[in-house]
Every structure is written in C-alpha cells, then in structure tokens.
Design goal:
Order of helices and strands: EHEHEHEHEHEHEHEEEEEEEHHE
Number of strands: 15
Oligomer: single chain
CATH class of the largest domain: Alpha Beta
Largest sheet: 9 strands, mixed
Strand content: 15-25%
CATH topology of the largest domain: Dihydrodipicolinate Reductase, domain 2
C-alpha cells in the first residue's frame, strides 16, 4: 500500500516522541511537515529530527496551504484538540488526534458529524487497544470460553516523579488524561456499554498534584456485569503496567491480564493467564503483533484511508464518543460526591466496530 502523507502538529514532549520514535518505524506514513507555535520547540526539534526533509510551520493553516498532505496528526494540549481537528477536517484531511479528542461531548459530536459529512477518517489515538493482550481478551470474552462475564477489577498504580514534573498541573490528570485509556479498554474487552457509574476522586495529603490524581469508579452494565476501577498517580506500592492489572471473573473461570509495559519491547511484556473453576492457572500464549501501540494506530489509520473500511478494534471518533461519555460521567459523579450518574447514550451500535 502507498504511504499516507501527513502533517504532524505539536512538538512538546509527547509530540516529539511520536516524531522521533514512532514515525521512523512506520512504513505506512511519510511526514511532510511539522507544526508548533513555539519557536523554541521548533528549534529544539530541528536538532534531533531523524529526517531533515520536512518543513516547519507555526500554524496549521500555513502548512495546509504549503504542503501536499492528506492527513494530520494532532498532539497538542487538550484545549486545542477540537479546534485544530475541525480545521483539518474542513480542509479535507483525515485526522488522528490524541485522547481525549474534545473537551465536551458537544464538541466531539460536532467533529464526528463533520468527518462523516466530508467522508474523512477521524481516529482517536487510543493506542492501548493495539496490544496482544487486550485484543486476545476481547475475542476470548466474545467467544464465551468461560461463559458469561460477571465482574471486572482493574488496578492502575504509578508514582509520579518528585521533582520537575509538568504533569502536576494538568487538569484532572487521572480521570481525563489517563483513565480514558482504561475506560476505553473496558468498552473494548467487555463488548458492551456501561449505563451507570459512581466515582470518587481525591488528592491525598502530600501529593504534588494540583487536581485529584486518585479515583475509584464502579460501572454498571446492562447485562449485569459490574466493573471496578482503582487508579492512582501517587501510589506507594509496586507499579502496574500502563494498561493496569485486570481480573475478569466469569461463570466458569477467571482471567488475569496486563498490558503495555515499559520500553523496550512494549508488546512483549503483555501477559494473560486463565483458570477454569477448580483448576490451576494456565499461561495463555499471545500472538505478537507486527504493528503495536502507536505504530498500530498508524497502521490502522492507513488501512482505513486506503480501503475505506475500519479494521478490527478501530477507535474512530464515532466509537470514542462512548469513551468520552464515560469520562464526562466520572467527572459529574465525582463533583457530586460520588453520586450515581446515568451515562449518556448514543445511537445503537456505537462502539461495536470489533465484530
């Protein structure tokens, strides 16, 4: 397949990581230009970019005019996600945007409608989907190997650095910026949408964070499944992998799995174990993926553009509305002291792109 020509927007820490480590490994794309309004960020990046060919711009508008590209990748801070995604879509470009892809459901729905009207691919970079364990678990649940799912327990534990960490001032560093990955994985592996949740978030004594880095959420599903989530950026115990540690209890057995460890070999750190009732734990061998993490995002993006079909587990903007609805519900519940909140629903079939 031909390469997708793209413009990359955002040269901060995370955006630079895309450009330095992900694009050079991705045969599906060709970077035509970089955009960042900060001249210092541009100059810093010029010294480390592996390919000196791409051009640099301060505004997306200028890059769209000067460069022959068909797609845009947006890695700037959250308040800029929706306006720049809208600008790219109106220019007729396909878009990958970092999560969360909008600050409100209204903004998100507008972007989804715009992408549909312009027949463009709008993809949210839910890169945790593109790992061996969650994809194997989603198929395991769907195939009913252990009967009906009863409950899910998910723990995420990390301890942020004690000095010089810009993440300390990020609004809702857990619920909005991190747990969005975990709630999205819940949707993917459970295979249905939660209808109600309650959430408590807090900022413990001694925390360097401005806003709550800890939360507990309980989610209720129409089939009767109950999922519990515990997340913390200031946990003093052993840290989990980035996708967390999962226990899933079924009628006839239990699954334990974890995913997305640290570099190198992110995908080879995935683990999955199963135990039938009254039996011993067994390790499940996972099939390694030629394209995983953000390389998997780019590969799926290119496939969707070139074939006109969304590949399995594809996090389209349309699909991701339901993930964003969960995040919004957790914020409303936490603000109300943990009160139960109904989750906004979308048209039937939303999020069911992984048959």
């Amino acid at each position: 397949m031909r390469k997708i020509r793209l413009i990359h927007v955002g040269l901060g820490r995370w955006g630079s990581d895309w450009a330095r480590h992900i694009y050079p490994e991705s045969p599906d794309i060709e970077t035509m230009a970089y955009v960042d309004p900060d001249p210092v960020a541009q100059e810093r990046f010029r010294g480390i970019v592996p390919d000196p060919t791409p051009r640099f711009f301060a505004r997306l508008k200028d890059a769209l005019t000067a460069v022959d590209a068909e797609a845009v990748v947006i890695t700037l801070p959250l308040p800029l996600h929706a306006p720049l995604t809208e600008e790219a879509l109106r220019a007729g470009k396909h878009v990958i945007v970092e999560k969360p892809f909008a600050q409100t459901l209204e903004e998100a729905q507008m972007l989804v409608n715009l992408a549909q009207a312009n027949q463009r691919v709008l993809m949210v970079s839910q890169n945790y989907r593109f790992f061996p364990a969650p994809q194997a678990v989603a198929r395991f649940v769907q195939d009913g190997w252990f009967g009906q799912l009863n409950s899910v327990k998910l723990d995420f534990r990390h301890n942020a650095p004690v000095e010089g960490y810009s993440y300390w001032t990020v609004p809702d560093p857990l619920l909005v910026d991190m747990a969005v990955h975990h709630y999205d994985l819940m949707r993917m592996v459970i295979g249905e949408e939660p209808v109600e949740l309650s959430c408590r978030a807090w900022n413990p004594r001694g925390s360097p964070f401005k806003m709550p880095p800890c939360a507990v959420t309980v989610l209720i599903y129409p089939s009767g499944v109950v999922a519990s989530y515990r997340g913390s950026w200031v946990d003093q115990g052993s840290k989990t992998a980035w996708a967390g540690e999962w226990q899933m209890d079924f009628e006839f057995g239990t699954l334990f799995w974890t995913s997305r460890g640290d570099r190198p070999n992110l995908d080879r750190r995935d683990q999955m174990r199963a135990r039938r009732l009254n039996s011993e734990w067994e390790k499940i061998d996972l099939t390694q993926m030629p394209k995983h993490d953000r390389s998997g995002v780019l590969g799926a993006f290119a496939e969707a553009i070139q074939t006109g079909c969304e590949p399995p587990f594809f996090p389209s903007g349309r699909d991701n509305l339901s993930t964003l609805a969960i995040v919004e519900a957790t914020l409303r519940s936490s603000a109300a002291g943990g009160a139960s909140v109904k989750i906004e629903r979308f048209h039937p079939g939303i999020g069911k792109t992984f048959n």
